[in-house]
Design a protein that fits this description.
alpha+beta; globular; five-stranded antiparallel sheet; 20 strands; 19% strand
C-alpha cells in the first residue's frame, strides 16, 4: 500500500516473475527440442496468432496484467490461504492490526509503518456491503482506501473526503443495479467483484495505541440485507482459488491473469487489450486455452514479458519527474485517472502497490542523491535537512521511511526505527536556525544525534516520503512534480 503484491509476496516474488522471463532468452536448444517433442493440439495452430503477434501481445498483456496478478497474490495470502503467515481474515471480515508494520511484514512492498492498518477483503458477488465507521476525534487522521482488483482507487472514506464523523457507506460490485438506500451516506462502485478496503488510523506515539485500538473496534462491515433487516440473497458459488507462489508464477502468469479477469467486467478502455489477450487464450472470447500454445509461442510469450518488464523499468527510471533526486509523480487513481495508461499503472504497482491518490497522499521516492548517484548505506552516510520554514506542507502528517533498496521492505535495525515523521518532532533535535537534519546511515551517528537517526541498510537505499493530505494552497507539493514545495536533496556526508 505503497505501502503499498502468494503466500509471502515481496519483491523477491516480483523478482521471481522476472526470473521466469529468462525462458527463451538463450535456451534455443531447449526450445527447439520442446518444439520437436510437443505435438500441437488439433485446431490450435490455426487459431493462434503468429509468432511476432504473440510476443507483442505478451508484452502488452504483461504490462496490463502485472498489477492485477500482484493484487491477486496479496488477496490470496490475506483472505484465501489460511495457512499463509500473512493471512488476515476471510472475505467480508475486518482484520485490525493493533500495531505498525515492521521488517517482519513482507506481503506488500514499501509498506506504510506510520499508521496501524485494518484490512477488509470484500466479495461483492452476492450483494453490496455496508462499511460503518465511528466518530474519530478532531486532529486524528484516518482514511479508508477502496481499491479494486484492477488496482483502481474507486473511493475514500475518512478525514479528507467525508470528515471525522460517524457514517455508513455502501460498496457495490460492478453489476449491482440498485439505488442508494436510506441511511447510507455515500455509495461507491467497484469495477471488480472482489475489492479491498485498506484502513489507516493515525498513531501519535506508542502510548497512543489503545486509542487507535478503540477506533479500530468501531470499524464495522455487514451485508446490505442485514443493514436493511431483510432476508439475505442466495450465496454466490464457491470458488476454487488457484494457489499462487513464486515458483508457479514463473510459468503461469497468464493463467492467474485469466482467472482474475472473470471477476472484472471490461471497461471501454479495456476492450482492445482484452481482445488481444483473447488471441493468446487469456480472458473472455478466447478460442483455445493458453496452455495449448506451441513451445515456440510460449518462448515468445516469455520474451514479450521480458520486454514488458524492461518498459516498466525504463518508465520508472526516465519518465518520473525528478526533483532534487526525488521522483515526485502521481501513479495512483481511479479508472478515469489511468484512462487506459497501463504502463503508468504497472509502474505505480511496482514502485509500491496500493498507493493513494495524490490528493490523499503524495509519495516522493528516492534511490539516488541530487546528482543521480545511487544511495548506498554500505558506501556512504547521508543527511536530509528540512529548512525551518520548509517542512512538508500537509493537513495531516508527513514521514520519511527507510527501505532496503533491493527488496523494498523495511529493514531490521538496532533501534527498531523504520521512519521519522512529524508526530516525532517534539523528540527530535532542531538545529540552531530551527531546521531539522535527519541522519541516514547504517551506524549510529553518535549519542548526541541518535534522536534524529534513520537507520539505513548495508547496501542500496530506497527512501519514501509520505505527505498525507497535502495542502492544496501554496506552498504545496501538488500537482506532483510541479508544486511550489520541493523535497530537499539528500547530501552525502562521506
Amino acid at each position: 500500500m505503497n505501502e503499498s503484491n502468494p503466500a509471502r509476496f515481496k519483491s523477491a516474488w516480483f523478482a521471481a516473475i522476472i526470473a521466469a522471463l529468462a525462458i527463451g532468452c538463450g535456451e534455443n536448444d531447449t526450445i527447439s527440442q520442446a518444439e520437436k517433442m510437443e505435438e500441437a493440439k488439433p485446431g490450435v495452430q490455426d487459431t493462434a496468432p503468429g509468432i511476432e503477434e504473440t510476443k507483442a501481445i505478451a508484452e502488452e498483456g504483461f504490462i496490463y496484467g502485472l498489477p492485477i496478478v500482484m493484487n491477486y497474490a496479496v488477496m490470496y495470502a490475506y483472505a484465501v490461504d489460511r495457512a499463509s503467515p500473512e493471512f488476515k481474515a476471510p472475505f467480508n471480515q475486518i482484520k485490525n492490526e493493533p500495531r505498525v508494520f515492521t521488517y517482519k511484514d513482507t506481503a506488500i512492498v514499501t509498506p506504510n509503518s506510520d499508521t496501524p492498518y485494518s484490512f477488509l477483503w470484500m466479495d461483492l458477488r452476492t450483494e453490496p456491503l455496508v462499511l460503518s465507521v465511528p466518530e474519530v476525534e478532531a486532529g486524528r487522521y484516518y482514511a479508508v482506501q477502496l481499491e479494486d482488483g484492477n488496482t483502481f482507487n474507486f473511493g475514500y472514506i475518512g478525514t479528507r473526503t467525508t470528515g471525522n464523523g460517524a457514517g455508513h457507506y455502501l460498496v457495490v460490485g460492478p453489476d449491482w443495479k440498485g439505488e442508494k438506500p436510506a441511511g447510507i451516506d455515500k455509495m461507491f462502485r467497484s469495477t471488480t467483484q472482489f475489492a479491498l478496503a485498506g484502513y489507516r488510523t493515525q498513531l501519535f506515539n506508542p502510548e497512543d495505541m489503545p486509542n487507535v485500538e478503540a477506533i479500530q473496534a468501531g470499524y464495522e462491515v455487514q451485508p446490505l440485507s442485514a443493514f436493511l433487516g431483510e432476508p439475505a440473497p442466495p450465496a454466490a458459488r464457491a470458488i476454487d482459488f488457484p494457489t499462487i507462489d513464486k515458483a508457479m508464477v514463473k510459468t503461469r502468469f497468464f493463467d492467474y491473469l485469466d482467472f482474475a479477469l472473470q471477476f472484472a467486467p471490461p471497461g471501454p478502455e479495456e476492450k482492445t487489450i482484452r481482445a488481444k489477450l483473447a488471441r493468446i487464450g487469456v480472458g473472455a472470447g478466447k478460442t483455445f486455452d493458453f496452455a495449448d500454445l506451441s513451445a515456440e509461442h510460449k518462448a515468445e510469450v516469455a520474451l514479450g514479458m521480458k520486454d514488458g518488464e524492461a518498459k516498466i523499468e525504463k518508465y520508472l527510471s526516465t519518465q518520473l519527474k525528478i526533483v532534487n533526486g526525488w521522483a515526485v509523480s502521481s501513479a495512483f487513481g481511479d479508472r478515469e485517472f489511468f484512462d487506459g495508461n497501463w504502463l503508468l499503472r504497472a509502474a505505480g504497482a511496482k514502485a509500491g502497490i496500493y498507493g493513494n491518490d495524490a490528493a490523499e497522499a503524495t509519495y516522493p521516492m528516492a534511490k539516488t542523491d541530487a546528482d543521480g548517484n545511487p544511495l548506498d548505506g554500505s558506501k556512504h552516510d547521508y543527511t536530509l535537512t528540512f529548512a525551518a520554514d520548509a517542512y512538508p506542507p500537509v493537513n495531516a502528517f508527513w514521514s520519511v521511511t527507510m527501505y532496503d533498496g533491493k527488496t523494498q521492505l523495511l529493514i531490521e535495525n538496532p533501534i527498531g526505527r523504520y521512519l521519522i515523521n512529524s508526530p516525532m518532532l517534539p523528540q527530535l533535535k532542531k538545529n540552531a536556525d530551527g531546521s531539522l537534519t535527519i541522519y541516514i546511515q547504517k551506524e549510529s551517528p553518535g549519542a548526541d544525534k541518535e534522536s534524529n537517526w534513520l537507520p539505513a541498510p548495508d547496501g542500496p537505499i530506497y527512501l519514501v516520503m509520505r505527505l498525507y493530505s497535502p495542502k492544496t494552497e501554496a506552498p504545496s507539493v501538488l500537482p506532483p512534480g510541479e508544486g511550489s514545495w520541493q523535497p530537499p536533496p539528500l547530501n552525502t556526508v562521506n
